[in-house]
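Z., the sequence and structure:
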Amino acid sequence: MTCRIGFVGVGRMGANMARCLKDKGYAIAAVQDRHPLAAKSLAQELSCEAAATPFRVAELSEVVLTVVTDDAAMDEIFSETDTSSLLNHAKGKLFINFATVSPKMHIQAEARVEAKGGANLEALMASSINQAREGTLYLMCGGKESVFEQARPILQELSSNLLYIGPAGDAAKVKALVNMIMNCNTAALAEGLGLGDALGLDLTMLRKVFGQTGAASRALETDGEDMQNRDHECYFSAAHAAKDSGIALDLAQLTKLDLPLAKATLDQYRRLVEVGKGEFDKSGVAELIFKGRML
């Protein structure tokens, strides 16, 4: 492929997306991360430049994919005052932003990029690390439909499900709701298994029953065995769960809706972060419930 692609943010998801596109013949021009060693290692693997700044990534690339952590990081890479930001080389470039950040931040990024003569799209992922590597992400996109069509060829290489949701910010709203419900389901599963354990029930049997009844959920499939075995290798961190539930609750506050289950779930994930377990997978919420475990 002749299109030169750059990445800003090459953690678990960004790095595997870059590997996926490289395998499919795309030219990866540069990668950049707030952790320079991560960028350097990936750059060596992909035979591209480990850029010192987002500006350098945009300078070398026609399309820039960003996968950053939170609103503050998104604001920084699209800063209107920092000379090292993406905006200083945005003219004629396409930016596709995959981070789960607030809707207002995606709207702001679009406005800032367009003011500099570039195009911008949000592409929110409802998937995990393996899907990023395999190019089977579930992607929900927000922004101008013409920009979505411009980005489609690359997005199709990364996804098995590709949806256009609507204007900037709308995909971020949908993603916030997806993760809010996922987090609630995960916390509820931890309570069910924790109570089953306290009652002396066989948890393998209990998980089987859950899976065949109204207790079934995707969380059961992805986290049930890990909760039972205390295997919390990180695929989606407790810290990210707290952040994303917080985004959803901020939206609820704007609409004056009370969401008690989401609030209780957010409290649990914040507790994990507070005790230094924010890098546990979200399944680690079980450690707060089971008797004789962490707390």
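The longest helix spans residues 170-198. The mean pLDDT is 97.

Let me know what you think.
H.
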